[in-house]
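Build the 3D complex.
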Amino acid sequence: MEDSRRQFLKITGIAALGLSTASTAGVLAADQGPQPYTRKGDEALTAKQWGLVIDTTKIDHELAEKITEACHTTHNVPFFDPEIVGPEVAKRHEIKWIWETHYHNAFVDSGSNNYMSEEVEHRPFLVLCNHCEAPPCCRACPTEATYKRDDGIVIMNFHRCIGCRFCMAACPYGSRSFNFRDPRPFIKETNLKWPTRSKGVVEKCNFCVERLAVGKAPACVEASDGAIVFGDLEDPDSHIREVLREHYTTRRRVSLGTGPAVYYII
Amino acid sequence: MLEYAIKGDKRYYAWITFLLALIGIGFGVYLWQLRFGLGITGLSRDVSWGFYIAQLTYMVGVAAGGVMVVLPYYLHDYKAFGRITVLGEFLAIAALVVCLLSVIVDLGQPGRILNVWIHLSPHSVLFWDTVVLNGYLFLNLVVGWNVLQAERNGTHYPQWVKPFIYLSIPWAISIHTVTAFLYCGLPGRHFWLTAILAPRFLASAFAAGPALLVLLCLLIRRVTNFDPGREQIQTLAKIITYALIANLFFFGCELFVAFYSNIPGHMDHITYLFAGLHGHGVLVPWMWASMGLMVLALLLLIPPITRRNEGVLAVACAMLFIGAWIDKGLGLISAGFVPNPLHEVNEYMPTLPEVVITIGVYAIAALVLTVLYKMAVGVKEEVAA
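Done.
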């Protein structure tokens, strides 16, 4: 009660600010919205800005598939079988949180040349939500249904989302999917620890917030046999920072200023 | 004044019945969409906006175009337009009906639409778009209604209406600017990421909106006893000509920047539209048709001899209206999403259910326009008599 009142005051305050011309710049900045906080249990893993390092040299097609499978089964991501719904519809309605692509697709601006190493060209690159420092999707959302948590994770509130898909247009990484139909008949085995979605809402990688809350690593990290490292990017003593210190890494579409929190070792 | 809307001849009622039938069919298909989800459309993970949002974008322009009769009359005291300002304002109202309904039919969870107002998010351009669109609807209703009522009573409209009239002029600019900002503020969508998008939107709006108004004026002259006037139509024709030139010029600026700079991210989308990309090009014939129609319309509009011929003018207006619709409706939205952020080409074409729902939306707007114009013409006929 106390919190919702405080949030209400905060929001009306910001709206009033928007109406006065005093500080439109402040209003336009995404981080000015109501700041959600996360209640934490005793075992919860915490950070200021969670991040991932994906060591692409350690991931082959088989492992990429295993990681994808782990993520999608954990989060009740439906699979539209092309043989049942038809190949076109399967493609249109596809929902994916993490998936395998080529180097030149993952790194469109900075990547490919005509004389690439064949090995890199055929290597699988896993792409997912980058949990950006300045997420354009959160800026676009008209209901705060997608927002950045205080631990840096960009998350969806499936019950608030109106399905306008502005966030999908805003995401420069193609990381978001929309439920064009009821996904439930297409989930092989439902994981009861994470909700299924209704039709008409957007979804994407949630950095396994439900697993972090009980002290577990994200499903992709767990399935990766050490090829994906996760940790707090803002903690200089964290393992992830150590990995970043020791390896040359790159991120996707850095020139756009979004500040991706997913790093790649090439 | 509403009584004018229920007094009509057989033709009038046949038209209303026809519109109601279209609305009924559209609504039926919409119920199907509500049940199944947006999966009955051609939209996809990659092209997540399409035909519905395209109608929003285009008709916002038509609504903004109404200011092209309001501004000369109220700011420059161009008296001739006094005869047709209310037609411009009522056209804006009908256009806004298309806009607002198109947003609603595009939502995945329309029942939650009030979340936009419960969880106010001033950082979202979509929030501001709802503000400007609803505000413009309100302004045109207030101004149109009061001015028409005053005309009927043979009095001057009340003084308190004046601030709303003046406000409606910059507000018209704002609706199309904010709608352009929906697109041009998104990182990584290079086709939209251009500062000239809002000016380009306005230029096409000031061509397409008045073009539709000219066609409606010619229709009104034919089916009623009210003549919107030859001078009025000719002045509109000149406005349309200038706006169309600006629109094509701005597009030329886009072409120069993309292709002289030779930056692939900027060229790819335009190449996709006009030549196809990686073997995909469903929009290529449409886009060339669009350009052909607009250029041809311009060739008919520039020489006074053709522009002054109302038959030719009508053809030019229709061509430009359709050409701009293809450009802004089909092309602009699709090309922003193709190729996708991973540089894959997945194309979009609206499906039949999507088109039928859209026709239903337009039928509702046409019904609103019919009722409003019936009122306006009724008043004008009464005053003349």
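Chain B has 15 helices and no strands.
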